[in-house]
């Protein structure tokens, strides 16, 4: 006889077979699971649904399959991150373009629980292509996160020279402090990122500004 299998069974992390199929970019497995009515919006213990994993992997084909199956396009994990955050953080340009250019879901461009919009995450990770695309999509922001860091702070802190160079073309006040009274230049120097520090100095960073 044939035993009935629970296609939505979860492991200790509350992840289903669909979570693993999507995370592994296994298109045929995703198709099989969706054909057998796997639930698309089950969240694991961190609030991650399959659509978040598709955004992280950058697989647009799987993303389209999930959305066709009814996945919640605006779902957030426990850290307040949606598909746009995950795509920006992992350089998923095609995913960002789909949600912004095709679906016009500009409301996804919101801060997560740390106060970071997708633009700040892309800057922190040093994704030059993503930064360029977000600027083209009018998703550039000079806003600060909850620690007072701007995209320029985060890029400088992590030594992302190419991103710093792009941001300097958009920036007005390069001597802004974060909550620790650190400027982007200070963070570049502190991290030993000489090229970033040189760029910021050439752009007018105050070398003698006090860290209070």
UniProtKB/TrEMBL annotation:
Q: Which PROSITE patterns match?
A: ANK_REP_REGION, ANK_REPEAT
The residue intervals holding the ANK repeats read 13-45, 46-78, 147-179, 180-212
Q: List keywords of the entry alphabetically.
A: ANK repeat, Repeat
**Keyword Mitochondrion belongs to the record:** no
What Pfam families does this protein's entry cite?
Ank_2
Q: Per its UniProt record, what InterPro entries does this chain match?
A: Ankyrin_rpt, Ankyrin_rpt-contain_sf
User: What SUPFAM superfamilies is this protein classified in?
Assistant: Ankyrin repeat
**Stored Gene3D superfamilies:** Ankyrin repeat-containing domain
Entry annotated with the keyword Repeat: yes
**Protein's name according to its UniProt entry:** Uncharacterized protein
**Native species:** Micrurus paraensis
Output the lineage of the source organism: Eukaryota, Metazoa, Chordata, Craniata, Vertebrata
């Amino acid at each position: 006889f044939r035993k009935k299998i629970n296609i939505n069974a979860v492991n200790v992390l509350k992840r289903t077979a669909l979570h693993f199929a999507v995370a592994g970019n296994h298109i045929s497995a995703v198709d099989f699971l969706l054909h057998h009515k796997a639930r698309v919006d089950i969240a694991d213990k961190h609030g991650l649904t399959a659509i978040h994993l598709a955004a992280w992997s950058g697989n647009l084909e799987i993303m389209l399959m999930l959305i066709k199956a009814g996945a919640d396009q605006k779902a957030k994990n426990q850290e307040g991150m949606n598909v746009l955050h995950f795509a920006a953080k992992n350089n998923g340009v095609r995913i960002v373009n789909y949600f912004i250019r095709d679906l016009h879901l500009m409301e996804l461009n919101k801060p997560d629980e740390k106060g970071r919009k997708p633009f700040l995450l892309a800057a922190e990770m040093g994704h030059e292509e993503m930064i360029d695309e977000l600027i083209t999509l009018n998703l550039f922001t000079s806003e600060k996160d909850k620690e007072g860091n701007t995209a320029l702070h985060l890029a400088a802190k992590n030594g992302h020279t190419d991103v710093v160079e792009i941001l300097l073309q958009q920036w007005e006040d390069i001597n802004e402090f974060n909550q620790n009274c650190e400027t982007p230049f200070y963070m570049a120097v502190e991290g030993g990122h000489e090229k970033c520090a040189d760029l910021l100095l050439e752009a007018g960073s105050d070398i003698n500004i006090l860290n209070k």
